[in-house]
Write a sequence for this structure.
């Protein structure tokens, strides 16, 4: 009953018509007065029911140590891989119990591991991992294949500013907004798949993520822990959390006909806002750039969601240029300024004069390394 009431509330909020919403087919046009519109999922399971599991790594059951999702801490990361596989397997079990005929798994974390964060030897053998010959973007390249009926997201986190465990959006110090509304990565996934009428039906993570996803009342959401800060959490008993993951995943598939598809309003007013360690101050005063110094944010308009996403990614590259300030602080704390600063200055100068003199060329790519398959993220 609560789900029905929530869906009715969303429908009433979307009753007024004012904004065109991105659609997957001509003539299928909907109007809404929100950042996105909602349409009923179109389920056709005549040739089977295929579900994609997209995982992150910060919203896992039994996890309260940030080192478990960071490849740079091998001992702790190995434990995180075990937690990740356990959560995914619990969800896979529920998806098949609910009627899925195929389940694929794709890496949406990007820990720095050249291999997928989820180990194949730990994964339920009924599921298949998504690999490609080249690197691909998990958020936007996969929907273009249009081979899935639903998406489940596992091990996710809350958005920047939500106070969740490892809460962020896309990467450190970044927030994405559409039409002035801050979004989670889960909502970004839902909007991306919404271009092709595919719903997100399940999500797992901490309590702050669950609060963020009140915008998606149809999904089955499992809280596996309670965030007490960005680096601490109160844990639920792991077996209990896994049982809930399985049960909720099963319900998600069984109630797929009730799912909603998210359609972004066009054109997209896209904003990227930054907090430390990121920053966009370098763009202040640049003609044609809508930079808000008070919020450290840039707003731009895009014709499609993909264009907005590409713009965000480009601006993330600018925002990350402030990361080395933290390195400078560490160098200073270690008392290495006297040695490193002159060496750095000389290296910059030498690179310039060598290039101008025709003496420099980019370093060659390493030889002999085995080619890596694309497995998600980037």
């Amino acid at each position: 009953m609560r789900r029905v009431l929530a869906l009715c509330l969303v429908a009433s909020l979307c009753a007024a018509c004012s904004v065109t919403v991105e659609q997957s087919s001509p003539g299928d046009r909907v109007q809404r007065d929100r950042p996105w519109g909602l349409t009923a999922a179109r389920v056709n399971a005549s040739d089977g029911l295929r579900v994609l599991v997209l995982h992150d790594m910060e919203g896992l059951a039994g996890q309260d140590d940030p080192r478990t999702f960071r490849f740079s801490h091998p001992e702790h990361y190995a434990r995180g891989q075990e937690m990740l596989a356990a959560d995914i397997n619990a969800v896979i079990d529920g998806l098949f119990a609910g009627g899925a005929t195929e389940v694929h798994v794709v890496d949406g974390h990007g820990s720095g591991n050249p291999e997928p964060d989820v180990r194949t030897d730990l994964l339920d053998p009924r599921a298949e991992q998504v690999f490609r010959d080249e690197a691909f973007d998990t958020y936007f390249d996969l929907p273009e294949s249009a081979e899935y009926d639903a998406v489940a997201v596992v091990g996710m986190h809350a958005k920047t500013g939500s106070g969740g465990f490892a809460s962020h959006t896309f990467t450190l110090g970044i927030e994405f907004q559409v039409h002035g509304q801050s979004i989670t990565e889960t909502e970004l996934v839902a909007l991306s798949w919404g271009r092709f009428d595919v719903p997100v039906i399940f999500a797992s993570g901490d309590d702050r993520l669950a609060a963020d996803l009140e915008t998606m009342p149809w999904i089955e959401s499992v809280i596996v822990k309670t965030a007490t800060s960005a680096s601490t959490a109160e844990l639920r008993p792991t077996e209990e959390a896994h049982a809930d993951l399985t049960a909720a995943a099963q319900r998600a598939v069984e109630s797929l006909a009730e799912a909603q598809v998210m359609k972004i309003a066009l054109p997209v007013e896209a904003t990227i806002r930054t907090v430390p360690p990121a920053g966009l101050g370098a763009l202040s005063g640049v003609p044609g750039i809508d930079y808000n110094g008070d919020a450290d944010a840039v707003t731009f308009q895009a014709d499609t969601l993909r264009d907005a996403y590409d713009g965000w990614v480009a601006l993330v590259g600018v925002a990350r240029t402030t990361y080395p300030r933290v390195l400078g602080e560490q160098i200073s704390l270690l008392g290495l300024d006297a040695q490193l600063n002159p060496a750095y200055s000389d290296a910059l100068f030498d690179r310039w004069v060598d290039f101008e003199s025709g003496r420099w060329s980019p370093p060659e790519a390493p030889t002999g390394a085995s080619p890596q398959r694309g497995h998600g993220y980037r």
About this structure: The chain has three domains: 13-264, 267-322, 325-356. The first strand starts at residue 19 and ends at 21. Residues 325-356 form one domain. Helices lie at 2-13, 74-98, 185-194, 207-212, 238-254, 305-319, 324-333, 337-356.
